[in-house]
Structures are given as C-alpha cells and as structure tokens.
Structure to design on (107 residues):
C-alpha cells in the first residue's frame, strides 16, 4: 500500500489527492507512510456500499475481463493496467462512478 501511495503521489505532484480506503489490513498498517500531498478518508467498518472503488472494479471487470481466459497472472496484470489506463483517460467516466456527493463535499 505504501508503494501504491507513493506512486499516486508522484504521478500527481502538484495536486492534493484524497483517497478513500476501507478497513483492509494494508490500509490501516501502523507504519503506513502517507505522502504530504495526500490524505486518506477511512470508511466506517462494514460499509462496502459506500466504497466507490467497488464500482470501479465492477466496471473494470465488465469492460476488460468479461469472457476472457488468461494464460498467466502476468497477463492479468497487464490487462488490468491497460484497463486502468483507459479509465484514467476518461475523468468524466471516473467521476460518474466514484464522484459521489459525500466524497466531493469533503474536498
């Protein structure tokens, strides 16, 4: 998780990033270092319906993984990266999936 946070922070050095996280162990590690240009908003326990990433993963699975068989885990990772790159190029689509009022009001 720390490596992911650094990657996102480095990709957006001039922006302040607010990331919504759930209660996964990696999201609440005691020694997790959050970059200075980032804040984590923690969801309440047992509230998957509030987690916008669930909608992003549903979209990614539907568009990039439906009816596909992969030979290796590496091929799965490559396909996920391709799909995430496509999503990144369509900020309005991302906003419609994850830009919920309670998130946008906290910015």
């Amino acid at each position: 998780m720390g490596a992911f946070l650094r990657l996102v922070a480095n990709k957006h050095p001039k922006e302040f990033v607010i990331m919504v996280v759930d209660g996964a162990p990696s999201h609440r590690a005691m020694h997790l270092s959050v970059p200075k240009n980032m804040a984590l908003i923690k969801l309440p326990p047992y509230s998957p319906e509030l987690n916008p990433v669930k909608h992003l993963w549903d979209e990614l699975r539907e568009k990039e993984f439906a009816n596909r068989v992969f030979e290796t885990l590496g091929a799965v990772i490559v396909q996920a990266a391709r799909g995430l790159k496509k999503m990144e190029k369509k900020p309005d689509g991302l906003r419609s999936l994850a830009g919920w009022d309670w998130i946008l009001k906290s910015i």
Remarks:
- The first strand starts at residue 17 and ends at 21.
- The chain has two domains: 1-47, 51-100.
- The chain has a mean pLDDT of 86.
- The CA atoms of residues 21 and 27 lie 6 Å apart.
